[in-house]
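Reopening this ticket.

The earlier resolution said the output was attached, but the attachment link was broken on my side. Pasting everything inline this time so it's all in one place.
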Amino acid sequence: MLSIKDSAQKIINDLPDDISFDELIKELAFKRMIEKGLQDSLKNKITPDEELEKEIEKWSKEKEVEDYEKDNCNRYP
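Inline output:
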């Protein structure tokens, strides 16, 4: 198994030379999230589809409220 430093170096070496620092940080964070998700999956630390559907529905409703408030409640300073 590669050390964290070796893993980061491999990711960096696989990226184009003209990548920005922000893109590099995003890429490293993305790879880490993928690794963590795979590790959680192997440990059976997963969220059932039904729970995810409820969470997504909740987020959607919250977004609708935010959009409504932004469009209708901030008309007057």
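Reporter confirms the inline version is readable. The mean pLDDT is 89. The helical segments are 4-14, 21-42, 49-72.
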